[in-house]
Amino acid sequence: MAETKKKAKLSIEEKIARREEMAQKNSNELKLLKRKLSEQKRKERDKRIYEKGAVFERIIKERQWPI
Question: N or C: which end of the chain has fewer CB within 10 A?
Fold first, then answer.
């Protein structure tokens, strides 16, 4: 009987260990996804800035400013 309790306890401990491993894996995956989202947002922001800068530069070049 004590042996069965030991096996049950080990299996519970094993389950806990597996769950902790899964939690760590999910945590790492979540960090990776957050990093990718941050990169995507940064690229979108940079693209908007470059496009607005190009439009602004074109307007300045087309208009002759008096010196």
Answer: C
